[in-house]
Structure formats: C-alpha cells, structure tokens
Amino acid sequence: MVWSVVKNVQQGLKFRGGVWGLLHHMYTNGDYPFKFGTFMGADGAGNRYYENKVDYPFGQHRWVEPGDMNNFDSSSIPPEWHGWMVSMNDAAPATEDEFIADRKQHFVEMEHSDANVDHNVGHTEPFFNFHGMHDQSQMRSRGYGIGNPIVNLPPGAPNGYYTQPGSPYNPASIRKLEFIGDLDEASGGGRPYKSLKWADRLQTADEKAANLAAKAVDDKKMMSSFQQEVLNRQAAARGRGRGTVVGK
Q1: pLDDT tens digits for 122-135?
Q2: CB within 8 Å of 158: residues ≥ 6 apart
Q3: Do β-strands 38-42 and 62-65 pair in parallel, antiparallel, or remain unpaired?
Q4: Is the Cβ–Cβ distance between 63 and 55 less than 8 Å?
Q5: Which of 60, 66, 103, 158 pairs as cysteine with 56 (C-beta 3.0–4.6 A)?
Q6: Torsions phi, psi of 89, nearest 5?
Q7: Which stretches does DSSP call E strand in 154-225?
Q8: Rounded (to 5) percent helix, strand, coil in the chain
Q9: Band of the pLDDT at 148, cuts 50, 70, 90?
Q10: How far apart are CA 183 and CA 204, in angstroms?
Q11: Strand order in 48-51's β-sheet?
C-alpha cells in the first residue's frame, strides 16, 4: 500500500512537471494527478483525453485532463469527444476513420443504396472550434458592424451557428439590396430607395405635401374624365332609342 503510493507520487512528479505542477493538479483536478493511461488525443481547446482499461473499472477508464484547469466545466468537452467519454463510441475521434474503415470490411450489404456515404454513420457536418467554445449559438454578432467582443467575434464576421434553410438569418435567404429609384435622380442622386414605402420615409414634409397636392389634381382629372365617359355613354344610349318593339 505504502509502496504503491510512493510509486504514484514519483510518477506524478515525473509527468506533472515537478512539485509545483503536481500540487497544482492536485488542487484543481482531484485524483487525476495520480491517474495514468494511454493518451487518445486532444481537442481544439487543449483538453487531453486518456484511457486505461487495465487499472480502472468500466465507467472510470476514460477521463479528460483540461487544457485550462482554472476555467473548465463539463460543457468544455466538444460533442465528438463527449460521445467517446460516456462510452457511446468505441473509437476516439482521432481514430474514428480507421475504425469505420475496419468495420466496413464486415458489413453485409442487404440492399443497394444511392446515398453518397458507404457506412452507417452517414453524413456529418464538419465541426469548427472557436476559442474553445462548442455552443455555436453564442457565435453571433451583438449588432450591425460591432461583432461580439465577449466571444472575440470581429465586426463583419459571419455568425457561427447553424440556421435552417429558409430562415431569414440563413445567408442564402438574404436578398441582395437593390434600389428601384432615387429621389434626387435629377440632381445626380443621393437618396436611393428600394420600395415606395422607403421613398415615403425619405421625403421631407414639403415634398410629401407637394405629392399629395399633385395626387389630388390627378384624382380630380381622372374623376372628370370618368364622369365625361359616363355622359357620353348615356348620350349614345339615347341616340339609339329604345330599340324595336315586336308586334306593333
């Protein structure tokens, strides 16, 4: 018992960078300073993943050593490594392609498929690590042209979260800005508008009053023309008479 503790301390001093590194790991990382296994890979945030099936029971045989021990919680583990940590996946993300290639040799094709993948995992979107943050819904601008300084998203950078096709936030659904006219076209331009409602908002009070007056004149002319057309139809009807009466 005593000898095993001494050996663990010796290994801890060797692999944790001396006394200060060992004490730092003991304070921030519980029993992991004395837990050793096979290095399985690391993620973009610097978290390191280990496995030891010999010395530890199932459920404790896989663990993570944080890249930033002072700012770490369970959400710091990305989805691809979380599946491996909880034993949903047999292969670590670093060896996933080799594992699938090996298992495909034992697949029995029951029916032809036109899918563009040849294994049961199917299509997966590439995962992008952004400053160690895996919740991509946080990768959004806080306003036009200001970005998001909290997550270090620079101004003008696209949002990093997924949007459904057809969503107004999907880049493919954003229509290009096209103008249909300019209020100052006669003088070289300066107040372009993309719709009549937009043009109405750009007009001054005097311009709106002048447009209303011009519209009233046009309405009066149109009404006079309509009334004259009605009078002409009535005169034409009287000129034709009441028609031929049969039997008289």
Answers
A1: 666 666 666 666 66
A2: 171
A3: unpaired
A4: no
A5: 60
A6: -115, 140
A7: 181-182, 192-193
A8: 40, 10, 50
A9: confident
A10: 11
A11: 38-42, 48-51, 62-65
